## 1
Amino acid sequence: MGRAAQRAERIREKVPIIQVLADYGYYVDPEGDDREQQFQCDLHGDGQDNKPSARAYPESGSFYCFACGRSRDAIQLVREKEGLDFSPACKLLENRYGLPPLPWDGGPREATPEEEIREALTPSRTLEDERSRVSRLLDNLTREKDLLVETTLSLWEAFDKIMWVHEQGRIEDRPAQEALLRLRGIVMDKLKEQV
């Protein structure tokens, strides 16, 4: 199970859906958080609900609105009410209901753009370190970014040329490293545009 799924599962288990609904002003009884309850849903149409069209299911940590025709959990409710994406909605719920951050399992994780920039601005010790770093940055930059094909190809072509010249023994480590640093500068400019 991935980290996002773990966070969602923990919120469903630890944060009572009835309490979340009550905190958002829905007419539910927070003392009766272990039984199903009907309430008026304002997430459809014009935001008015003349009769209770939604039903909360504490056992699953969710509710279903018969007018909307949708099932939601606390995370989805927060996303719709606050206009947040998944991760910020989880963070809001974790903070609001006192859930500590999940411990990191030590497995690999994808670096944020800010972490990539910070790492890229730290000088490396060897040409091989620099080659690995720039290769990783280029891969991250070009994999799922909205770049023109020509831009992507020119970045990889410049990287390949630098590495070919170095592998042929035509330049010393220092000039190759300086060329990689220049290329890294281009990559960093593109990464900053993505942040």
Note: The two ends are 28 Å apart (CA to CA).
## 2
Amino acid sequence: MTERLWAPWRMEYLEAPKSGACVFCEIGALPPAAYREKLVLVAQEHAFVCLNRYPFAPGHLLVVPRRHTADFAGLAPEEYDAWMRLCRDAVARLRAATTPEGVNLGVNLGRAAGAGIADHLHAHVVPRWSGDSNFMPVVADTRVMPEYLDESWKRLAPFFADVAGQHA
């Protein structure tokens, strides 16, 4: 008999009206009071950090420049610098919060490179542990997540409290 891995939180996304607007631009325009609901850990003038709603591992972060651009060249030097500094800060805090054995830091430029949201530049910061990728993605096209997003946010938020910017 086939086993089922239930993911009921996906229905909210599937049934939600699609505005066609950029999700990162929408998050970047939110007031701080909405950060917690949208899983934002810190927001600065030029960039913000949030949890990925469709993570590869618990604690999978996105570091997003506020400017809507698909490539590095679309950022002014001060925006690029602020974004890269926030990537560095996100890696350090993720390491402190989750004690991974390694961290993937990457940017997918274009759909062919794996970008799910290709029109708005963003970096993935993914904690990794030996053996965290098991057989499920290979044989069942399924990822097993050992922690709910809300629990990941609660674990990570205190580690971002000292990063300059706005917090929930």
Note: The chain has one domain: 38-160.
